[in-house]
Amino acid sequence: MTKRVSHQEITKSDIVKNEEFIGEHLETLREFAERGDASVMYLLGCYYDGGVCEGGGNDPDEAVKWYKKVSRLGNTHAMNNLGVMYLCGQGVRKSAAKASKWFRKAAELGSVVAQKNLAEMYRYGDGVRVDSAEAAKWYRKAAEQGDAEAQGILGVMYYYGEGVRKNVAAAVKWYRKAAEQGDCGAQNNLGVCYDKGTGVAQDWAVALKWYRKAARHGNACAQTNIGEMYETGRGVAKSAVRAAKWYEKAAAQGYAGAQYDLGELYASGNGVAKDLHAAEMWYRKAAEQGNAEARRKLAST
User: For residue 34, which of 88, 249, 255, 264 sits 20 to 30 Å off, Cα-Cα?
Assistant: First the structure.
């Protein structure tokens, strides 16, 4: 889990933008903080743990001290950062229980970042018991505040019935909200729904539109899906040559499904010059990532 702290979260942005200024006026800033200036307390916390700028004070103990002080004043950003520090054992003894405590404090006060961090802990059992329902609850809170990442994840949870009753219409709703904000994972997932006619009327043209949006952001799954549409002629003129180009884009990113598909094209000479050595290479790359079909191909040769 990474610390999700943006510069915009810090009140004194004129100070934040200038690392040199912070270093030169550190003692003055500490005086303001000691007098109870909450925004400077938070600034110092970020500075000492590198949250403001790379190469800051690099003193996690000092960061924890200032985060705790300003957390008592209700600063949710500091609460979230304390949660991350406890989760990672930075400046404090590693403790998932204390991490979840600080995430929960901030999440209950409306911090979207903390809501997602708490949801992630419950979804993956990161130091706590896996609880998909609790994860869905906190993703929903973040999603309802307009967070695209949370909306996309909530869509996945509805699609598969993870922590919620399976509901593909609800999945489509949340995918669309996230996709319209530019979340490439949600764009691909929405494309899949239109491609298969799941939760919406099947529409290959709309599917391709969303796949292309995601592919432009480098989404390997979407690139593979476009390749499959060209290979099968779903909504586009059938073209193994174009399919190969899309598979190559995704395979180069290490996407196992595309590596297998590309191996199939090389094995058959469909869209590319037949090359059994290249086919074996791509099968092997896919198999190394656990692709069952690629493993079967290798075992049969």
Answer: 88
Average pLDDT, the chain: 91
Provide the token pair at 139. Answer: 């993703």
Digit-coded pLDDT (tens) for 166-181: 999 999 999 999 999 9
Q: What string of DSSP letters covers 120-186?
A: HHHHHTSSS---HHHHHHHHHHHHHTT-HHHHHHHHHHHHHTSSS---HHHHHHHHHHHHHTT-HHH
Q: State pLDDT tens for residues 78-120.
A: 999 999 999 989 899 999 999 999 999 999 999 999 999 999 9
Residue 13 has pLDDT above 70, yes or no: no
- Alpha-carbon distances of 60 from 38, 57, 274, rounded to whole Å: 19, 9, 57
SS3 272: coil
Integer Cα distance of 87 and 240 in angstroms: 48
Contact 96, 121 (CB under 8 A): yes
- CB-hemisphere CA count at 13 Å for 260? 19
Compute the distance between CA of residue 94 and CA of residue 88 in angstroms, rounded to an integer. 6
Cβ–Cβ under 8 Å, residues 191 and 211: yes
Encode 26-66 in three state secondary structure. Answer: HHHHHHHHHCCCHHHHHHHHHHHHCCCCCCCCCCHHHHHHH
Helix (H, G, I), strand (E, B) or coil at 72: coil
Tokens of 226: 């476009």
